[in-house]
Fold:
Amino acid sequence: MVQCSWKILSTVRMSTQVTVFKQPCYVENFVQATFDALGEKVKGLIIVVSGDGRYFSKDAIQIIIKIAAANGIKEVWIGQNGLLSTPAVSAIIRNRVGPHGEKARGAFILTASHNPGGPQEDFGIKYNTENGGPALESLTEKIFSITKTITKYHIADGINDVDISKCGTHSFTGPDGPFNVVVFDATEDYVKLMKSIFDFGAIKNLLSRPEFSFCFDALHGVSGIYAQKIFVEELSANPHFLVNCVPKEDFGGGHPDPNLTYAKELVHRMGLGKMVPTEKIPEFGAAADGDADRNMILGNRFFVTPSDSVAIIAANAVGAIPYFKTGLKGVARSMPTSAALDVVAKALKLKLFEVPTGWKFFGNLMDAGMCSICGEESFGTGSDHIREKDGIWAVLAWLSILAHKNRGVPRGGKLVTVQDIVRQHWSTFGRHFYTRYDYENVDAGAARNLMAHLVNLQSSLSDINSMIKEAKLNVARVIRGDEFEYKDPIDGSVSKHQGIRFLFEDGSRLVFRPSGTGSEGATIRLYIEQYQSDPSKIGVESQVALAPLVEFALKLSKLEAFTGRASPTVIT
Ligand code: VG1
Ligand code: CO
Structure:
């Protein structure tokens, strides 16, 4: 038993700088606290440990193995080289069966998601439970409180470092009897699942068309190994379609975040950068984040907003994706995500759920059989095949829709493009103009004051509307201001203070919320949305259409005065 000088950890979805993780007992504290929180359940359990391969993962894996053995874990399952995407971990918990019919009941996922990696960058650990989804708040709160008072952790010194570069079983004698570490191919379970969901034949057919080309950018994250296996080996795509698909500990020094700011190479190739590409622009482009749960979808010189992406997938799923052929159980979106999905749900007579930001809320709905497809504006899309959002799944969903729409087009004919599909969708359902402004690393006190100011404003809607009139702002009347609150329909738990909303007469919305995941200072997110059903106006450029609302949002919130920021860090 080792004495532990305890440290207060910032959050339980613990994601922070590597230098912090390297402090004595830091990883040990979180891992032991998790086992303590799980209590007696830990004995004889199988757990998965792996992640996006970022710097410090290999050290953390060896530490976790030893603490697991000392706590009575029976077996630790590891993807080769310690790699497993977040969605693959979820799939493994749900579906992988050991030689004696046994299944894993939890996982430590080592990732800081879309944040940069490297000795001076971020690392993270997250615990997922037996449904394959992130631990619910009741457990994470328990873990967090234990991390603050913990004084010791258990570690099995008799266990040598395990070679995780080769597949195979390493057997040890742990304090509670036999203890195994099983290293396996990181892609097999996930590929099997994808093949059971999509029509690989139809996608292969699309990819084999000489007039179709695509580009997938893994941003040096873990999605690269799945892209290689699925797109190239299974679907026979040209290997030239893949860029940055070899995982790197530092993501090549980049920011593995699939958006127009950070996915630079893809953005350039798709004709959306400042320079005109020298090669032919592909028909379809996509990227995923470090741990492969986020995705960005692009067409030739065309960006698909994530809020539109989930709506379009939901609208086309039944015909294009075999997994959904019997219909959808319901759909869900996070509150700040645009209402594009709501319009589809209404047309298809599906139940729609609006939940707080973060994937765990979707998990409860899915476990209860109430939701098939869901998404977030933050480049997260997924379905009830697992309990995490899923980047590669979203790419396969789009490829399926493209294959389906082009099934009648003769080889060599003019293909239905991503842009055609989106424009067609807008003309059927109307368009939700959408943008998000992020103000990162804002002073925490300033952020709190800003939020308090916004809460105060909710009780003076008539003043707000007079201001709109006086300043002759081209926006509708504000009819409601509130803080979003969610009561989970399954377990009845209530989540309060989930974002400050201003709702307008014409359906437009402004939402302000502080980020729950930023690793430095506070991050303020401002979400701006406007609905347009007039077909003659849906083609306008998004930033142009939204300019009056943006101007109003900044004026109303006094954001610059509070934060000292004249412009956002990132616009998505
Ligand atoms: C952000 C996104 C949210 C997402 C979360 C985790 O949270 O806004 O939609 O679920 O990141 O994404 P926040 O609280 O910073 O706004 V990931 O790819 O890090 O699992
Ligand atoms: Co992620």
In short: The longest strand covers residues 431-442.
